[in-house]
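Re-running Zinc finger BED domain-containing protein 4 to confirm reproducibility after the cluster update. Everything else is unchanged from the original entry.
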Amino acid sequence: MKRHHNSELDTASTSKTTTQKTKRDEEGGLQPQPKRQTTLSEIIDKKSLYVDDDIRAKDITLTIAEQICVDMEPFDLVNKIGFQRLIKKLCPKYKMVSRFHITEKVIPEMYQRVRAKVLELLKTCRIL
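Result of re-run:
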């Protein structure tokens, strides 16, 4: 292509680089942004998994436990390949917890919170 259509190639390559990222200037026009190489620390951050006490990991784990309880799914759901693939696709940084962690830690804590809330609501109810 370069040998026969050199001018079209130059036009196409310059338009590709100028339309990738843009920024508005003071007059409201769009200004091309130069490409920036990803740093090594950004690449490592993308690949690293959430630590166990990360708020996002805890939130995802709690949501999985809620789904198990609400839909009456078996605890073994977290060991199934399809479910693990779904979670990995939705949140690549999340490290899937074990069935044991769900049954021995997350669900009992959830049960205690719900039980306390129900008891609190029952105390405020009036008997007719």
